[in-house]
Write a structure and sequence with these properties.
Elements: H1 2-15, E1 26-28, E2 37-39, E3 45-47, E4 51-52, E5 61-68, E6 75-82, E7 97-98, E8 103-105, E9 111-115, E10 122-129, E11 138-144
Antiparallel strand pairs: 1-11, 2-11, 3-10, 4-10, 5-9, 5-11, 6-7, 6-8, 6-10
Length: 145
């Protein structure tokens, strides 16, 4: 009888659901002047400062973004990733590659996207204005890692 009770208790512990206590951090991605938005006037290409993914969990990365402008918003956002920080922040860098398919932005609402599994220690955003994009357009990023 004693063995039977031990076996039942062991089965209960083995089959109990386990819930991980995952704590995520939300980080605002900075631009060239350490503001909370990356300006992307007209049809220019701009980059956010790189940010570390070293202490993020190795799952997907949640991103929220929002454009603001005094006129029309027409831009694309491309997440980039690399094994190192860029040689020069806010500039093109061959060590950074496209992480996901670019997202189009044409309004001033908050949007969310998921970046698949973190495999490199650094990331940043490349923002390109297109067409009738207004000179006052800025895009704010929040990264949950």
């Amino acid at each position: 009888m004693y063995r039977f009770i031990i076996i039942i208790l062991a089965l209960l512990f083995v089959t109990m659901p386990v819930q991980a206590d995952v704590k995520r951090v939300i980080e605002t991605v900075a631009s060239e002047d350490s503001s909370t938005a990356v300006d992307v006037p007209t049809t220019l290409t701009r980059y956010s400062k790189s940010f570390s993914l070293i202490n993020s969990n190795e799952a997907d990365l949640g991103v929220m973004y929002k454009a603001t402008s005094d006129g029309t918003v027409t831009a694309t956002i491309q997440a980039q990733t690399s094994y190192q920080r860029p040689t020069t922040e806010l500039a093109a860098d061959a060590a950074y590659v496209m992480w996901e398919t670019p997202e189009s932005v044409s309004d001033e609402a908050w949007h969310a996207m998921t970046l698949d599994t973190v495999i490199m220690p650094y990331a940043r955003f490349k923002v390109t204005g297109s067409g009738s994009n207004d000179a006052t357009t800025e895009i704010q990023f929040k990264v949950m890692k």
